[in-house]
Amino acid sequence: MTTNRIAFQGEPGAYSHEACRTARPDLMALPCRTFEDVVEAVRSGEADLAMLPVENSTYGRVADIHHLLPESGLHIIDEAFVRVHISLLAVPGTRLDQVREAMSHTVLLGQCRNFMRKHGIHAVTGADTAGSAKEVAARNTPALAALAAPLAGEIYGLERLADRIEDRQNNTTRFLIMAREPDLARRADRMLTSFVFRVRNIPAALYKAMGGFATNGVNMTKLESYMVGGVFTATQFYADIEGHPEDANVQLALEELRYFTSMLDILGVYPADPLREAQRNVR
């Protein structure tokens, strides 16, 4: 049974909502209050897919998301790179010189400092981007605008006074699309495999575990560590590699990794987003 819905965290008009419309325009987007609610919507069958942000090119990884992925019971089937284009949104009829304050999530406020300084606009911290747009629409005063995605302006009936006002024009968020079942049958020119693991408690275990990827010519695009269980001695690693587990060199690398690990869990196998190559070429 399918629902033709994809769940995301946030209010309608959030950047995660925009990611849903970009990557899965044929599905209805389902807003959820928390990341845990997004996962539960898929597990329960309320939605077919989950759209989860994992990292931003400016601000790094999304807090707590690496803990959620292996515990979700879901599988990564795709990735989506979404450019963070920021618009100044105000009630209809507002002129730019009337705006005195702009509301948004603190992260987004920090990405528009040059524009805000140039126009003498003061920052007001909101709960999130789309929620700020919703609040601006409700207050209905020209002095207060919102910084959010253009989609939020469409949804809440606000005018775009300025577009693409972010300080860094290459600011991009990477999302993972997750489903109840894995999809290992697809093949593309560039495949990715994501997994988590814990190394055995032996000297130089991580160094030895990583050696298999080097000797077998497997490119590791990401390796991050984070604590588990609330103790400093229990460390788990999240990794992305290029290739499919059925590729001969990836098979050999994973076999060597298993020898030095106490746990290894494949989270997903999926094609690389075309924008990944574009991000690689940005300097």
Automatic annotation (TrEMBL):
Entry EC number(s): 4.2.1.51
The organism of origin for this protein: Paracoccus stylophorae
Domain Prephenate dehydratase: 5-180
Name this polypeptide is given: prephenate dehydratase
Pfam hit, one: PDT
NCBIfam families per the UniProt record, alphabetical: PRK11899.1 (NF008866)
Catalytic activity annotation: prephenate + H(+) = 3-phenylpyruvate + CO2 + H2O
Molecular function via GO: prephenate dehydratase activity
Keywords, ordered alphabetically: Amino-acid biosynthesis, Aromatic amino acid biosynthesis, Lyase, Phenylalanine biosynthesis
Keyword Lyase in annotation: yes
Pathway the protein contributes to: Amino-acid biosynthesis; L-phenylalanine biosynthesis; phenylpyruvate from prephenate: step 1/1
InterPro entries found in the cross-reference section: ACT-like_dom_sf (IPR045865), ACT_dom (IPR002912), Chor_mutase/pphenate_deHydtase (IPR008242), Preph_deHydtase (IPR001086), Preph_deHydtase_CS (IPR018528)
Limits of the ACT domain: 194-271
